[in-house]
Amino acid sequence: MATEKQLDLPAREKIEAISPTGSHDGLEALSGVNEKSLLRKLDRKLLPAVTLLYLLSFLDRSNVGNARLEGLVKDLNMTGNQYLTGLTLYFIGYVLFEIPCNIALKLTSPKLWLPTLTLAWGVVATLMGVSQSMAGFYVARFFLGVTESGLFPGIVFYLSMWYKRNEQHYRIALFFSAAALAGAFGIFAYGIAHMRGVGGLNGWWWIFILEGLLTVVVSLCSYFFIANYPATANFLNDDERAFIQARLASNNDATRNEAFTWHNVMSAVRDPKVWLYGLGFHTMSLPLYTLSLFLPTIIKELGFTAGEAQLLTVPPYALATCLTMIVAVASEKTKVRAPFIMGSSCFAIIGYIILLSSKKAGVAYVGTIFAAAGIYPATAIVLSWPANNVSGQTKRATANAMQISIGNLGAVMGTQLYRTESTPRFYVGHSMAMGYLIANVIVFGILWWVLKTENARRDRGEGADRLRAISEGEWLGDEDPRWRFQT
Predict the structure, then answer these.
(1) Helix/strand/coil for 70
(2) 295, 313 contact by CB (below 8 A)
(3) Fewer Cβ atoms within 10 Å of its own Cβ: the N or the C terminal residue of the chain?
(4) What is the spatial distance between Cα 227 and Cα 233, in angstroms, rounded to a whole number?
């Protein structure tokens, strides 16, 4: 493995020479670096790598829905409700280890931590394919949650150390679109299921084994293609490294040498806005995960065969993937966040109204398309927002982890809603998902108002007296009167 190169003295001098407050044209003229070309280079190096890891993460957590159609519950002698307990255990492990995993990222490095997490859950996902009992299935699901818990908030924090605030949202939404794309892998589950009987194993075993082994192979390769932070990334030359440092210095806290402190962790815990971000994802995670985990079952109970249900999961997720990217671009271009979340949630609400009201299989299936097409674009913006709005490296890492932890408590409850006795219409599950989406619109309406009010207060100069008490160049994070929140 190549040794990463530290930022040398000439590069440091260039950083100081390039004015953080200067125009981008001025930065380019001084450094000789074309900014657009550099951004394309970063996108090519960073985004495919993290998108692939997240695709595998979502695939390995949600393929249990495909495995259920291929005899998982019957072979392990479980009842439908015992199967739901296995789904719940995943999210308990996820929630418990979310914040510790993000602190571990801060204390180690992305190049080591992200591939190691991937390797760990790949091994667990593969072992889930050789489960011989309900107890083994439960243990594997719990530790799958533990090992996957650090990936998403870790990637969000990682990208915030490379891109300016106004550049992060689209990139985060782009890699989150892999979650919707993972759902479209139902077509591969359909193919793998035809291996039933090979080695004396049923099709669901092979779904877990082959997809888990794929993750293990990719994780070993990822030690070579995941980069660290700009100051030490060996795919950049000194001019590019200096340029990135300078442009970040003018826009966020990524270039600040911030040591880990528990005070900065607690500043996130004490911030009401961080709790609102968490509550916003909480109201989104229940419909997100109930859809991703139960969509094959929902479609099958409409009257389709198991094989047809596997294939019919593809169109909702394919449309969701496209709309996630389209809405992300629109949100980025307009610099608007909350209205796109609220609008997408309303689109998903229409889907659940259709599912609850129609008894015709074809019409109800259209409802699943509406639901997916609304949930995934909204979730992408929900999860990228704290990375844009929370300043202070440790505070942002903690806020990202808190958002996922609080949010996934909704998923814990959601895993118990689609119970066997509620088939085939799943009135309770669909009603709760719709209710949570309505709550999501309300929560983000409140957060939108809070952020706009705080920006207006700072525009009037309130709190500016705090700047007299700090030294030149000192930064107060998102509590700094010069900071403006994206709304």
Answers:
(1) coil
(2) yes
(3) N
(4) 6
Lookup: tokens for 167: 């550049």
Say how many C-beta atoms besides its own lie within 10 A of residue 427's C-beta.
10
**Largest separation between any pair of C-alpha atoms in the chain:** 74
364's tokens = 């109800």
DSSP 305: -
**Cα(388)–Cα(444) distance, integer angstroms:** 16
Closest C-alpha to 67, from 206, 241, 219: 206
Residue 67 in tokens: 């495995």
Summarised one tens digit per residue, pLDDT across range 326-374 is 999 999 888 899 999 999 999 999 999 999 999 899 999 999 999 999 9
Q: What is the DSSP letter of 359?
A: -
Cα–Cα distance, 247 to 42 (Å, whole number): 14
Neighbour count for residue 25 (Cβ, 10 Å) = 9
**Token pair 């419909």: residue:** 287
User: Is residue 162 classed as helix, strand or coil in its secondary structure?
Assistant: coil
| Burial group, residue 395, by CB count within 10 angstroms (0-12, 13-18, 19+) | buried
Query: What are the tens digits of pLDDT across the range 11-70?
Result: 444 444 444 444 455 556 556 778 889 999 999 999 999 999 999 998 999 899 889 988
How far, in Å, CA of 198 to CA of 249, rounded? 57
The answer to whether the CB of 243 falls within 8 A of the CB of 13 is no
Choose among 152, 193, 134: nearest CA to 57: 152
> What is the model's pTM?
0.84
Structure tokens of 361? 């299989």
